Amino acid sequence: MGKYLLRRILQMIPVVLGTTLLVYALVFALPGDPVKAMFGDKPVNAAVAAQIRAEYNLDKPFIIQYLLFLKNALTLNFGNTFAGQPVIDEIGRAFPVTIRLALMAFVFEAVFGVIFGIISGLKKGKWYDSVILIVSLLLISVPTFVTGFLAQYFLGVKWRLLPVTAGSDPGFLDLLMPAMVLGSVSMAYIIRLTRSEVSSNIAEDYVRTARAKGMSNRSVIVRHVLRNSLIPVVTYLGQDLGALMGGAMISETIFNVHGIGFLTYQSILKGESNMVVSIVTLLTLIFVVCNLAVDMLYAALDPRIRYA
Amino acid sequence: MKKRMLALTAVACSLGMLLAGCGATNATGAKDGNGVITVFDTEPQNLLVPGNTNESGGARPGTLLFAGLVSFDAKGKASNEVAQSIEGNANSTQYTVKLKPGWKFSDGTPVTSKSFTKAWSYVANVKNAQKCSSFLSTVQGYDDLQKAGSLKGTEQLSGLKDIDDTTFTVTMSKPDATFPIKVGYLAFAPLPESFYKDPKAFGNAPVGDGPYKLESWNHNTEIRLVRNKLYKGNVKPKNGGVTFKIYTKVDAAYADVQGNNLDVLDTVPTADAKSFRTDQNVQAYNRPGSIIQMFTIPSNLPHFEAGTQEGTLRRQAISKAIDRQGIIDKVLNGTGTQPVDFTSPKTPGFSKGLKGKDNLVFNAASAKELWAKADAISKDNDKFTISYNSDGGNKAIYDAMVNSIKNTLGIDVAADPMPTFQEFRNAVDKRSIKGGFRSGWQPDYPSAENYLFQEYDSAAAHGSGSNDGDYQNREYDRLMDEAYAAPSTDAANAIYSQAQEILLNDLPAIPMYYDNAHGVAAKGVKGLAVDWQNLPVYSQLHK
């Protein structure tokens, strides 16, 4: 297990290098001059623009800019934003908020997704199975921003049940609505995934055997059906945590959550390559770590994988 | 094995809840007490240093933190603030500024002549890379401070002389009658000595002499201002403080005003443009404002050459072919005003009766006639395009405008959206747009000069200013120079009106509409007024 872990960690190095280079090139290729854009419609003092360009190495060729970024990044210096704030501080402010949001969404989708999925799977064809299926279909097909605005208008503005926006230093209640909106689509997928797994596993021979041995219904479901059904669900959840971190942008903008999604969007618009690359690197790392965790969980769920 | 799995799930759940709950200090959006008003803002692009603030995110709090020599009332009329008097000589090339005694920064240090002269020199000095440096360009010694290589950043403008603690003189390199108004712009704010020790630390926690002082700035979240007890200027705040809540998107701010979580939003999201004036959850406002929206037609565009007979005819035809009122009513839902000049109704000296204003009125018959006359000189079969940046919500307006021109003149016209403002500006700078392009103008200080010189004088053409259409007209330039050397603001305004009549004939740009100052406030907010910058007068708001 230790060797396996080490190999997986070493594999991250080329992944991170490749991603940063790719993203840096993409931001570099964005049309327009970020320095000139800082002046808006107002006259640009060419000397001042040149001064700013030199300060951020924007006057150097692409590859030099990238190498300078790498060199500084190795000493954990990610540079400053155009506004003069250290990139690391900005990320440090935004990241915990998004992690909180993503984890809440994750817990929401995992708990409700699996519970409703099991109920649906066990009671296939009953009326609540149909209701769950219809609701999950709706959640999948309606875009997040529509769900978000509807939730905001009814739960926030009209009925005053939850805060309209998350605002500064969001707490549990502030993030509840954005997290539910963010997690709703994945929850619907998990419901359907769990449902189909449970309903097919329940008809398997080993379940019948277990029942024939006189095992209680509860034990059969928890020990045999669930355990086997959850493997694809865990795979999905593991990948989804990374996706939630990156995909929080829509929910963050609707609910004014000052997280990483919005920071990325703003930085792309402003052409702040250092910021964009730093964030993407971080997200890549999270994605890789999540995948690693999934592989480890597999082993816990399925002994055949462990001993293979 | 069952236990292990359950334990794992339990750990994952409780970890999530723990992380989620750990910031739960201010659970719901509690309303601020003590007469503090919350208003919309975006995160300032830069640290809050006056000379480096050229966008509204920073200007909103900036103008409350710093008081300059003069201040403007809501109508844009200037009156002395820190200045006791600003006396100019006959041709506006030298000014003597006297300060009122006893002014202090919010840290208790005195505001002296040096607080101004040193700050202005800092802004002008290219080594300090201040975005507003070009505002100092008419002060003597400015050119010497533009050679980045040989400068340390501490060199002073040679045109500024401190006589004593409350008197200084300003010598201009060329006449500048607008100077006594210009000095009300944020870039001309005085700075305390502490600024120079660490400009970055200062920018994070600015110390000014304005009606409010900074309490805290939590980046990307909120900027809290409280009343500055040491302030003794023209502004009489009616609230205990102003908190700028920073938003990532206007839509979220609008929902917050509806939900009574935010007091004032000085704009309206596109999605609510139709309904905001009848929305029961908010108080809406919509008044004539200071921003003018236009599109420029490059002076050298074939068949549209400025100053030639054919070009002028075509420009006038295009302008008369646009049903502005229709677009204002239908697309802007009444949040605009039909233009009659090249400045705005909020600009001192504004006149509704300029010769040639008919060129800005929809007249299909006359438009067709003018176009036919131009075609008689030389037939134009090219497609006419109008470019704009589509990230600013301009699509509906440009589509409507293009349709209006097409339907009236029966010619081939198309809107040409460009994805981002950056890309659009880049194309404008490179002069690569072969057609008309969007050009809005928001004034920095309430003066016709700020609109007319920057956008249409030859000195601002070919990349040295904002004359992006490279319009050149000797007679116009002469009037600009004359206005600069005028003995008073009123005399200058009379000359500016004359100059505008040239523009109304030549149409280097086609005015479309004045952007109204419009927005929403929460129920119960009182004292809603809008200033010459289209922003709420924050100091007058109260509940």
Which features characterize this protein?
heterodimer; A: 308 residues; mainly alpha; 14 helices; B: 543 residues; alpha+beta; four-stranded mixed β-sheet; 15 helices; 30% helix
> What order do the helices and strands of chain A follow?
HHHHHHHHHHHHHH
Largest sheet of chain A: none
Query: What's the average pLDDT of chain A?
Result: 86
Roughly how much helix do the residues of chain B carry, as a percent range? 25-40%
Of all protein chain pairs, which has the greatest interface, and how many residues does each chain bring to it?
A: A-B, 76 and 78 residues
Mean pLDDT of chain B: 89
| SS-derived structural category of chain B | alpha+beta
Blueprint (SSEs and pairs):
The complex is a heterodimer of chains A (308) and B (543).
Chain A: H1 2-29, H2 34-37, H3 46-55, H4 62-74, H5 87-122, H6 127-141, H7 144-158, H8 172-201, H9 205-212, H10 217-247, H11 249-254, H12 260-270, H13 273-301, H14 303-307
Helix pairs in contact in A: 1-13, 5-6, 5-8, 5-10, 6-8, 7-8, 8-10, 9-10, 10-13, 12-13
Chain B: H1 2-21, E1 36-41, H2 56-65, E2 70-72, E3 78-80, E4 83-88, E5 94-99, H3 113-124, E6 160-164, E7 167-171, H4 179-182, H5 194-197, H6 199-204, E8 212-218, E9 222-227, E10 241-246, H7 250-258, E11 264-265, E12 282-296, H8 309-320, H9 324-330, E13 336-337, H10 364-377, E14 384-389, H11 395-409, E15 413-418, H12 421-430, E16 436-441, H13 448-456, H14 474-484, H15 489-506, E17 509-522
Parallel strand pairs in B: 1-10, 14-15, 14-16
Antiparallel strand pairs in B: 2-3, 4-5, 5-7, 6-7, 8-9, 9-10, 11-17, 12-16, 12-17, 13-17
Helix pairs in contact in B: 8-10, 13-14, 14-15
Task: Tell me about this structure.
- The complex is a heterodimer of chains A (308) and B (543).
- By secondary structure, chain A is mainly α.
- Chain A is built from 14 helices and no strands.
- Chain A has helices at 2-29, 34-37, 46-55, 62-74, 87-122, 127-141, 144-158, 172-201, 205-212, 217-247, 249-254, 260-270, 273-301, 303-307.
- The radius of gyration of chain A is 24 Å and the shape is flat.
- Chain B has 543 residues and is α+β, with helices and mostly antiparallel strands.
- Chain B contains 15 helices and 17 strands.
- In chain B, helix 8 (309-320) runs antiparallel to helix 10, helix 13 (448-456) packs antiparallel against helix 14 and helix 14 runs antiparallel to helix 15 (489-506).
- Residues 1-33 of chain B have low confidence and may be disordered.
- At the A-B interface, helix 2, helix 3, helix 5, helix 7 and helix 8 of A face helix 1, helix 7, helix 12 and strand 16 of B.
